[in-house]
Amino acid sequence: MNKKHFLTGTLSLALVAGLTACGGEEEAGGDSQTDDQNESASEENVDTEYSSSDATYTIEAGIGLNSEHPQYKGLLEFKNIVEEATDGDIYVETYHSSQLGDDRQMMEALQLGSQEVTIPSTAPITNFVEEYAVFDFPFLFPNDEVAMEVLNGEVGDQLLDALEDQEMVGLAYWENGFRDLSNSDRPVETAEDFEGLTVRTMENEIHLDAFSELGANPTPMAFGELFTAMQQGTVDGQENPLATIYLESFYEVQDYYSDTNHVYSPFVFLMSKQFFDGLPDDYQEIVADAAQEAGEYQIEENRAANAELLDALIEEGVEYSEVTDEAREEMAEIVQPVIDEHAEDLGTDFVDEVYEAIEEAEASLE
Ligand code: TK8
What we know:
Layout: H1 3-23, H2 32-46, E1 57-62, H3 70-85, E2 90-95, H4 103-112, E3 117-118, H5 122-125, H6 144-151, H7 154-162, E4 168-178, E5 180-183, E6 198-201, H8 205-213, E7 217-220, H9 226-231, E8 237-240, H10 242-247, E9 256-258, E10 264-272, H11 273-277, H12 281-308, H13 310-315, E11 319-321, H14 325-346, H15 348-365
Parallel strand pairs: 1-2, 1-3, 6-7, 6-8, 9-11
Antiparallel strand pairs: 3-10, 4-10, 5-8, 5-9
Helix pairs in contact: 3-12, 6-15, 8-14
Residues 63-65, 103, 120-121, 176, 202, 223, 240, 244, 265 line the site of D-xylonic acid.
Family: Belongs to the bacterial solute-binding protein 7 family.
Region (Disordered): 24-53
InterPro entries: DctP_fam, TRAP_DctP, TRAP_DctP_sf
């Protein structure tokens, strides 16, 4: 699929998602749990010490994942820190479960200044800053600590800076984590098992190309539409970190889980540049520090969730396939041409810089 075709495809998907979002109050997610969570979120928004009517600034902050996810806990932490530090002069309204739109729509809202904060995975950010695509290279990072070291170093900073041209300010890296595969069709242990599997991917070219190379049928889709797509059998499977698979109740519509660990997904805490630039200096510092501090908490909670939830998933009746390092190596070999091709597109100097940063981080953490 060429680039132009891909962009047109995702744009129309985004339009469809937009129309669906206007069409009704109902949230994607497909289970009754989501409705309860929406209610408790609106309660949280009014039921705090502070209120938006007393505030000079209101931050509307939205994420794609639900209120059970550590991403939302991190967002609530951000809210608490900011409201306390400004004695309620900045008020933070929190939304989850794609209530304000999917990652891409929320980023567009930040550009327009109609929403202040969102925390997408880096994969959809590539539609705004292409270089973020380097993190979509399968099997790039050996572990999450190395990943964070690189993100918090020069490479990560450089990419945050590039967001400014897109009317967004990147305040911190949070963590989604290593992505794994779930599906409703078969146990997946080796590269061959991907053959013919219809897998929802994020709206990202490398993910599309890599899954095609493995013999799967990748279908790009916004996260908010995923549960229903799995329920209706539009897709056999999807890939996301374990915390998401469990906390979004994907086990209700998926029978198999494989710890492929194929891509590490960072989250980026984004603020509308228009809004950020309009804040007094001391408030700019407060929101920037709060994004960092809440991020440290989010990362801790996220790692704990990803480490703990396997047994719970199995208890829900999902069959666990353990993927060996050997099988991962085979997958890595198959997708190497995709990586080479995209490395060329992104500029080999830049990609080499990232590889060097990874080596340095590995050495420093040993
Ligand atoms: C949440 C997304 C999501 C991501 C995806 O908004 O789309 O699969 O992993 O969790 O950022």
